[in-house]
Amino acid sequence: MELDFCTDPQILGMVVDAMADGVFTVDAQGRFVAWSRGAERITGYRSEEVVGKPCRIMEGPNCKGFSTVAELLESPKPPPDGICNQECKVLARDGRELYLHGNIRVLTDDQGAIKGAVGTFTDLTAFLRANEKITLLEEQAKSRTAFQRLVGKSAPMQEVFRRLRLAAQSDVTVLLTGESGTGKELAAQAIHAVSARQDKPFLSINCGAIPETLLESELFGHSRGAFTGAVRDKAGIFEATDGGTLLLDEIGDISPLLQLKLLRVLQEHEIQRVGETRPRQVHVRLVAATNKDLGALVTAGALREDFYYRIHVFDLRLPPLRERREDLPLLVDHFLQELGREHGKPVTGVTRDALHHLMAYPWPGNVRELRNAIEHAFVTVQGETLTLLDLPVEIRLPPATPRHALPSLPAPGDQEERQRILEALAQAQGRRTEAAKRLGCSRVTLWKKIRQFQIDVGETTGRCPP
User: Fold this and answer.
1) pLDDT value of position 69
2) Partner of 258 for a Cys bridge, out of 146, 254, 371, 410, CB 3.0 to 4.6 A?
């Protein structure tokens, strides 16, 4: 028997019940008249539990797009086109939170009087939960590649992040070591930012940048008349940082006498202003930083041994950029975003050859030099991509070879590769395309290897190649 979808209302009911979406109708008073099988599957409420009762299921506390169904039906003016979109977070029969999206069409008679409404809704719970999970995973992934303002996914930086978290959990003195430009001050700021002192001051002072005669006053303060020019009492940086974290950068540059006074601060938690005899209590978490070998300074007598062991409670080394080259693309992207905001230029990437030169450069100035190089490029960049010509000249050009420097001997593997290239070129009679095929590489790769190994193609055939 053929099914007549046009004249048999039971067929329409079967189609509605087969739909994955929920479908319902209400009368002019907002009471359920019909409740489809799809609505039952989504909400858990059976038809006999809702039909004849007020429409409360679809009126959760977090609905958007319209008020309640009853208010919608009582409105003297139906919504445009008779349809009102709906987003709701409602409770299923078993207590689960459901995220629903649907719409309601108001039904009117020939005179325009509202007779009821028909509604449909889709369950978006699984979709939204999946998006929440993706967002969480993205946040977790980001946390694995950054710690405060430090960026890196390499094993050395992951170890740095781990030790920074450990350092933040206590008040022990931390010694940060590493070459200039590796991010020691950022590491100190990160320790403070996630510690119990985060709401207190964070201050830093470069001990190597201040003359010895002034450094003591800067650290501990002075009283009026303590020395020429001391026209009033002045608090030092220790008092200004009370309760917070103080970074003493270039700690290896201070004199043995000042080391002794700092030792007292570390042991007794008190300072004494220059020109005063009364001690003052301070509670400061100390972080020291240096790019020098403090052990060698102890051996040379420039650093007191007791002071060294007092600041060397928990040490943390910041690796140079050459030991974490895999972080370089991540750092470049980080600086592009940071400097893009500062300069108002939406630069989103770098060209392949620019990145190649950035990866090959030795970076003696470490991350600080990399940031400066990217900022230099922002001056000349046109468009949304940094090119090789935007980078500083020392990065674009290979380092010059000293005139009298002796050439380094190639490694055994390089010698074997050079010999294979010579043989392939000889067999191909100097034709580079043919030689590249014999070697199983591209012509460009072969050209680079010829330059790397300083091969004279003419020697392989007794003539210059065309």
Assistant:
1) 66
2) 254
Looking at the structure of the chain, the number of domains it has is 4
SS3 at position 89: strand
Q: Residue 8 domain-assigned?
A: no
Q: Which helix (H) or strand (E) holds 35?
A: strand 32-35
Q: Which two tokens stand for residue 58?
A: 């679809």
User: 213 φ, ψ to 5°?
Assistant: -65, -25
- How many whole angstroms separate alpha carbon 444 and alpha carbon 449? 9
CA 70, CA 114: separation in Å to the nearest integer? 11
Tell me, yes or no, whether 129 lies in a domain. no
Q: Are residues 110 and 195 both part of a single domain?
A: no
Q: What residues make up the domain containing 448?
A: 415-461
Q: What is the pTM of this model?
A: 0.57
Q: Does 115 have pLDDT greater than 50?
A: yes
pLDDT over threshold 60, residue 137: no
Q: In 3-state terms, what secondary structure has residue 25?
A: strand
Contact of 365 with 392, CB cutoff 8 Å = no
Q: How far apart are CA 305 and CA 215, in angstroms?
A: 21
Give the distance, in angstroms, between the CA of residue 138 and the centroid of all CA atoms in the same chain. Answer: 10
Domain boundary among 256, 282, 317: 317
**Is residue 353 located within the same domain as residue 442?**
no
* Residues in CB range of 258: below 8 A, 6 or more apart: 212, 215, 216, 219
Q: Is residue 2 part of a domain?
A: no
Q: At what angle do helices 352-360 and 328-343 cross, to 10 degrees?
A: 120
Kindly give the pairing relationship between strand 97-108 and strand 83-91.
Answer: antiparallel
What would the pLDDT profile of 298-330 be if each residue is shown by its tens digit? 999 999 999 999 999 999 999 999 999 999 999
